[in-house]
Hints:
about 65% helix
Amino acid sequence: xxxxxxxxxxxxxxxxxxxxxxxxxxxxxxxxxxxxxxLAVELRKSGGGRLVPADLRKxxxxxxxxxxxxxxxxxxxxxxxxxxxxxxxxxxxxxxxNAYVRRAAERxxxxxxxxxHESRRAQRGLxxxxxxxxxxx
Length: 137
């Protein structure tokens, strides 16, 4: 499977994060959090899970931010990340020293589990419909 890129419709953080994500926290906490908030809106619109690899690395870097509010914002975004990044960051944030960050990671994990179960249930329903429909063809 081809990795998403900005040119094929992948969500890119460039317009939100490149100016503010200078590793070393050269930007203010409010700028980092504003960028993450804007990213969350974009991911919700696009259905999530289609971030370009360079931007996933930026998100992973922010998961280690000194400010717990930034880490909490990352925990809230976990739902939209591809499986490998989701698993890696969920493990990290569930063990965070800040209770708010841990709770946000737990909520995202629960939402992801619920979405997965609903998807499987819907697929079983489609499979049953397809099997029933085959009898009439």
